[in-house]
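Private note to self, pasted from the team thread so I don't lose it. Backbone tokens:
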């Protein structure tokens, strides 16, 4: 496996860079965030790399910093999120903002990324929220709960106290719009459970 590349930028275009490493030129897929920060052609560059093996070939995904690589690998843990979608998500949101959106359960922010529908956004939040929070704490970032996140936490607590399972309550509340106040969110969730 290739873990990193150090060489010269031979050419670059949105989403891709060719890196000349001692006469061997590697084609590396990059997010638009990384592309915007790549040095000029002919300049030295170092990319952290994730090697993706498939039946029809090998694809290299490159990152200018370890934070982006870490979030890329985190996204790939979710069922239905392959490396291309993970890279697309990172193109729409910088790694720090993405980690914050996951930790803060900000489904609406994720849905604004092209290629991410509501179901994928909800799955990302449901499966990665705790890991993203842990990564923010490890990185020294104080997690800031959004108003929607605080409302959902209170609503989940109320629904659990009424006898509903936490996972079911979180799933139902993910469908409630962010502008809905706490009491209405609980009533809406109870109506959905009654169906």
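Design output:
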């Amino acid at each position: 496996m290739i873990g990193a590349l150090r060489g010269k930028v031979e050419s670059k275009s949105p989403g891709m860079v060719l890196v000349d490493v001692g006469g061997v030129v590697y084609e590396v897929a990059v997010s638009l965030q990384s592309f915007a920060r790549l040095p000029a052609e002919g300049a030295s560059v170092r990319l952290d790399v994730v090697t993706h093996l498939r039946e029809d070939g090998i694809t290299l995904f490159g990152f200018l910093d370890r934070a982006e690589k870490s979030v890329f690998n985190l996204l790939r843990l979710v069922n239905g999120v392959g490396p291309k979608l993970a890279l697309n998500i990172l193109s729409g949101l910088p790694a720090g903002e993405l980690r914050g959106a996951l930790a803060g359960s900000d489904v609406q922010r994720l849905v604004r990324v092209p290629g991410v529908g509501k179901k994928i956004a909800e799955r990302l939040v449901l499966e990665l929220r705790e890991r993203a929070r842990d990564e923010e704490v490890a990185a020294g970032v104080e997690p800031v709960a959004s108003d929607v996140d605080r409302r959902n936490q209170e609503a989940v607590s109320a629904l659990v106290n009424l006898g509903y399972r936490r996972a079911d309550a979180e799933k139902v509340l993910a469908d409630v719009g962010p502008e809905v106040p706490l009491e209405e969110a609980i009533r809406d969730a109870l109506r959905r459970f009654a169906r």
